[in-house]
Amino acid sequence: xxxxxxxxxxxxxxxxxxxxxxxxxxxxxxxxxxxxxxxxxxxxxxxxxxxxxxxxxxxxxxxxxxxxxxxxxxxxxxxxxxxxxxxxxxxxxxxxxxxxxxxxxxxxxxxxxxxxxxxxxxxxxxxxxxxxxxxxxxxxxxxxxxxxxxxxxxxxxxxxxxxxxxxxxxxxxxxxxxxxxxxx
Length: 184
What we know:
The protein is α+β, with helices and mostly antiparallel strands. The protein has helices at residues 28-43, 79-87, 91-96, 98-101, 123-136, 151-160, 166-172; strands at residues 8-17, 47-50, 69-76, 110-116. The chain has a 4-stranded antiparallel sheet, with helices on both faces. It is globular, with a radius of gyration of 17 Å.
């Protein structure tokens, strides 16, 4: 993890449904890009952390979102740092070829949210944020590049959800502030 003076970092989770298993020759070009793209992320300005299976270089062996779904998750110092890596590095080549390897999603497949600096999100946390985005649309709690919110907006949103409203939060599918302690 890199040192940072930012009070909040941007977390991202992305899910992708494979057309074929990772050991299928039709997916080989994607697999060949994994190490270079991950190395570029690790060296990118503003990179903090990325999810990887223990003892492995990436998380492609883990399937928390389904047998044919791969998950990537990372944390960045700023939204600009994540955007730069996503759209101005070797990652762009993989994105441009994604239809060769992954099914087109009909619902959100990427979610962004703010976390306190030093907090490493869990996959369950990321999947919950993705579910929130899918169910309720963008908010300061779960958003996309196109619907971005600042860390201050996320903090204000969290403070607006009163601890006296846990029943309303449960009905809305959003956790109460006590269940959201690690989030900004």
